[in-house]
Amino acid sequence: MKITENQIIAQFQEWLTDCDSDELARVTGELFGGKCFPNYNKDSHRYDIYDFDPDENYYGAFDEIQ
After folding, report:
1. Could you give the CA distance from residue 61 to residue 33 in angstroms, rounded to a whole number?
2. Is the pTM of the predicted complex or chain greater than 0.90?
3. 33: closest CA among 50, 12, 56, 49?
4. Phi and psi (nearest 5°) for 46?
5. pLDDT digit string, tens, across residues 1-41
6. Which of 5, 48, 6, 42 is nearest to 24 (CA)?
7. Is the pLDDT of residue 66 over 70?
8. Is 64 exposed, middle or buried (0-12, 13-18, 19+ CB in 10 A)?
9. Largest Cα–Cα distance of the chain, in whole Å?
10. Residue 40 phi/psi, 5° resolution?
11. β-strand 34-41 against 46-54: which pairing, if any?
12. How many C-beta atoms surround the C-beta of residue 56 within 10 A?
């Protein structure tokens, strides 16, 4: 099956709209080479911050963020 870039983007945008924070964290961790977990933000009273634990597949995506 061949798909276009626009189809990929449209599907991703639809998925992103429908996913919850646990699913978003899981996929983000996989994409960037590690594991990502939602963490409770006391200021907003929501799970809208994340912990990222890099593994052997991490390629440096967050190196400049500290």
Report:
1. 9
2. no
3. 56
4. -140, 165
5. 999 999 999 999 999 999 988 898 899 899 999 999 888 99
6. 48
7. no
8. exposed
9. 46
10. -75, 130
11. antiparallel
12. 6
